[in-house]
Amino acid sequence: MYLKNDLLASGELEGPGIRALVGEYFPPRVIEAAGEEAVGAHRLGAHMACTYLTNMAVDTMGGATLVQLARDTGKPPSRVLKAWYVAWAASGAGDTIQRLHDLDLEVQAGLQAQWLLGVAGALDRATRWLLANEDLTGDPEFLIESYGASVSVLAASLIQHLSDRKRRDVDQRIAMYKADGLGAELARELVALEYIDGLLPVAALARREEIQASRVGSIYFGLVGIIDFAWLQERLDKTSTSNAWELRAARSLALELEAVRTQIVRHLLTGPNADLENPLDAFRQRCRGGLERIVELIEELREEKRPGIPALMVAIHAIRDECSAWTNGEGNGNGNGNGNGNGNGGKNGWRPTP
Predict the structure, then answer these.
(1) Which of 33, 168, 332, 352 is the most buried (most CB within 10 A)?
(2) How far is CA 141 from CA 47, 82, 120, 253, in A?
(3) 335 contacts 324 by C-beta, under 8 angstroms
(4) Distant-in-sequence contacts of 160-165, Cβ < 8 A, 24+ apart
């Protein structure tokens, strides 16, 4: 009731993107008999949309998770629900969830619950990213359509953009899901959904810079071959602690790590090396000194069986600081400062586009 009442009082339900949920409130035969326009104009439409959205979110995430999201992000519950709805609609999670529920009595209940929890976790991460990076004050219809189109393209070609190690991981997960009773298509959908918090930044960058999503995706995921963002993210996701502050710190670091990654990708796609066929190669050569320091630091972390939040914070802040130096033209490449593109802000070096 708390979530529903906050959503209803907020006025966030205005606009066709949210009001379209009114149609989901009624059985299909009612829509056919009355017509979509009449149903959409129902005088209790806001209440119906609010009820449907709240129930859908609570059924998927649990009420406590949504309240925790509001507490962690400092956003009102109504805004959290709106962000969650964008993530849910743009990712196609609703269809995946329904297909998982359709497997009742056909697969082990424990496995089914585990898959549904995985979807909820992916939507949690996606919601946090949207709350931190998107303007959600208006009608969400535009965001749903723009993100949905790019996410669909990226999800279909996800395997092509991943590193060899991540491809093996994806293949193993798909094989595991199939062995547990999922069909091949649903297994691939479930794995792609696990990457939604990576697909959203790619889609956002593609829209804002007017670059094809596949081009952005190739750089975004290819960057993992230089700096292992995926491993750092995995360690943050696997943070196991009963300390609420440590969990919040891990989530904050995850957003910071994503912001740094996006900053590097944006510069590679819009900076002086943007016209190169593979700007990642130029990045690897011209920023070799800083990259070597980061790789060494990550390798030190790998030697720890379970690196804690302080260790991960040191690594992420080191990447952030190096990124700041690179994008401000202060990176020293190979450290020789010879001004030939390998040195301190040399010609064609790592610097922002004027």
Answers:
(1) 332
(2) 19, 11, 22, 30
(3) no
(4) 160/218, 161/217, 161/218, 161/220, 161/221, 161/222, 162/221, 162/224, 163/221, 163/222, 163/224, 163/225, 163/230
By CB atoms closer than 10 A (0-12, 13-18, 19+), residue 242 is: exposed
CA distances in angstroms from 234 to 62, 178, 193, 277, 302, listed in the order given: 23, 23, 15, 30, 12
Q: Would you say the C-alpha torsion 248, 250, 253, 254 has a positive or negative sign?
A: negative
Residue that wins the pLDDT comparison between 19 and 338: 19
The predicted-structure confidence for 229-284, as pLDDT tens digits, reads as follows 988 988 888 776 677 788 888 889 999 999 999 999 998 898 877 777 788 888 88
**Token pair 């999503």 is at which residue?**
213
Q: Tell me: the pLDDT tens digits for 73-103?
A: 888 888 898 899 999 999 999 999 999 999 9
Q: Are 155 and 95 in contact (CB under 8 A)?
A: no
